[in-house]
Specification:
The protein is α+β, with helices and mostly antiparallel strands. It has helices at 14-24, 29-33, 60-75, 125-128, 145-155, 164-174, 180-189, 193-196, 200-210, 232-235, 300-304, 334-337, 394-403, 426-435, and strands at residues 36-44, 47-50, 80-88, 92-99, 104-105, 115-117, 221-223, 254-261, 266-270, 281-285, 294-297, 323-326, 344-347, 367-370, 389-392, 412-415, 443-449. The strands form three sheets. The protein has a seven-stranded mixed sheet. It has a five-stranded antiparallel sheet with strand order 2-1-3-4-17, covered by helices on one side.
């Protein structure tokens, strides 16, 4: 039997986008008499960012319009597209579609390019940071493997434990020596799935006895920084530091954070504690946070005996800021921002453009964001030898590209077109991507008509 259902138009046909553009057009007399109007947005398989004329939740009709475009994207194998449409008073419309590119992180603002990821798989510095060895760290006084074992055997008299060989194999796989308390926990109640079978009631009793859902030995894993999903778009300006009185190091991940329980939010034993922490302390890794962890108990014994650590405020030392804002209501000069610990520098509008001389040679400066027209000489950027992220206006990028002076240390970059109404500078962005051999951004321009009735 022949399928007589009408086929969906291609995502590269103007007709596919026409209902969505009509949805976004502003209403009212002023709009009808305007010479032209621009609408923009971003739409993908799992969501959209649209500037709608009506606030609040979408109606079922509006959702159907969006879903129709999403189906067309899926049929054409397109993950996401950003669009900008210029609609003239007579209805003539120019629609620009920028297709998803694996080298570009989607922007928070609809009409921007996003962040160009120049080095595939690269992470901002805080997510590459390794733990500082605390050579004097020892288990907490409350850590008591013997008491822990007695308590667990009283609560779980019929539990099946893991063998010494299984525990040793887990240590070899992880490349760490597990703390004695964790070994006790698995000796008492950490049998493999093959040994314990599908006894879900027994698993529930173990979870009740220790206060969390225990992972099997084969499920033990360290926390990897990359798994906490950093994005250059939001994290290039993130800075973290570990105060001298912190119990937990401010890290995204550590080979010494060994997760043994939890799904979503995870509990881990901490083998790389902070300056005032203890080896084997219990920390919580919050799935909604992309960096850091919270101390829950000084030891596994404390956790099982419900002696939970109360939250305490960490003393913040009087230190120079790691992020500086110059111009636009912030500091008055680059000199005021310059100090050896500076990591992120933002430059906004000032009375005159700023020179970068005072921050050259700073060992930790890794991010520079300068609004268009705020730099006296963009070529001074070449003296910042540790930059990993750079955001500039199109003219400043043009100067660097023409001079062959784009910093080779960059892992990611962005083009700030603040206040401009022209299309995103794709040619310039593609020049940057080409320098690193990355996939280029492609754009499709479609012409069509919406008609005055759409206004």
């Amino acid at each position: 039997m022949v399928d007589q259902r009408p086929s969906l138009p291609s995502v590269r046909d103007f007709a596919t986008w026409e209902p969505l553009l009509r949805l976004l057009l502003p209403g009212g007399t002023e709009s009808r008499t305007a010479r032209s109007v621009r609408v923009a947005g971003r739409i993908g398989a799992h969501g959209c960012s649209l500037r709608r004329r009506r606030r609040g939740r979408m109606s079922s009709t509006d959702r159907a319009v969006v879903e129709n475009v999403q189906r067309a994207l899926a049929l054409d194998g397109v993950e996401e597209a950003a669009f900008t449409a210029d609609v003239h008073a007579a209805g003539k419309t120019t629609l620009s579609l920028v297709w998803h590119c694996p080298a570009v992180e989607a922007a928070d603002r609809d009409s921007d390019l996003g962040v160009l990821v120049l080095v595939d798989g690269s992470l901002p510095e805080p997510w590459r940071r390794l733990p500082v060895p605390m050579t004097r760290a020892v288990p907490a006084p409350s850590a008591d493997p013997a008491l822990l074992e007695r308590t667990l055997r009283e609560r779980l008299p019929d539990a099946i434990g893991a063998t010494e060989e299984e525990i040793a194999a887990a240590e070899a796989r992880l490349g760490v020596t597990l703390p004695d308390e964790l070994k006790v926990l698995y000796r008492v109640a950490g049998a493999s799935r093959e040994d314990r079978g599908e006894d879900y009631e027994a698993q529930r009793r173990v979870g009740s006895a220790i206060g969390c859902e225990l992972a099997g030995l084969d499920g033990l894993h360290s926390v990897e920084a990359a798994s906490r999903c950093p994005r250059w778009t939001t994290e290039a300006t993130t800075v973290v530091s570990t105060p001298a009185d912190a119990a937990v190091q401010s890290l995204a991940g550590s080979p010494g954070w060994i997760v043994f329980a939890g799904y979503g939010d995870e509990l881990a034993v901490d083998l790389t504690p902070g300056p005032l922490g203890h080896t084997g302390q219990i920390i919580l890794i919050d799935h909604e946070q992309s960096i850091g962890a919270e101390l829950k108990a000084d030891s596994l014994t404390d956790l099982v005996l419900h002696r939970m650590r109360e939250k305490r405020s960490v003393h913040r030392e009087d230190r120079l800021p790691l992020v500086a804002e110059v111009g636009s209501g912030g500091l008055q000069s680059i000199e005021d921002a310059a100090h050896p610990a500076l990591e992120v520098l933002r430059i906004g509008a000032g009375p005159t453009p700023f020179g970068l001389g005072p921050v050259t040679g700073l060992p930790r400066l890794r991010t520079l964001i300068a609004r268009p027209g705020t730099l006296a000489d963009p070529l001074e950027i070449g003296q910042l030898t540790g930059l990993e992220f750079l955001e500039l206006g199109p003219e400043e990028w043009r100067v660097l590209l023409d001079a062959g002076a784009v910093p080779p240390t960059l892992s990611a970059a962005a083009v700030d077109r603040h206040g401009a109404r022209d299309q995103p500078p794709l040619a310039l962005a593609n020049e940057l991507l080409e320098l690193w051999g990355r996939p280029k951004i492609t754009r499709t321009v479609l012409e069509g008509g919406l008609g005055p009735s759409a206004w």
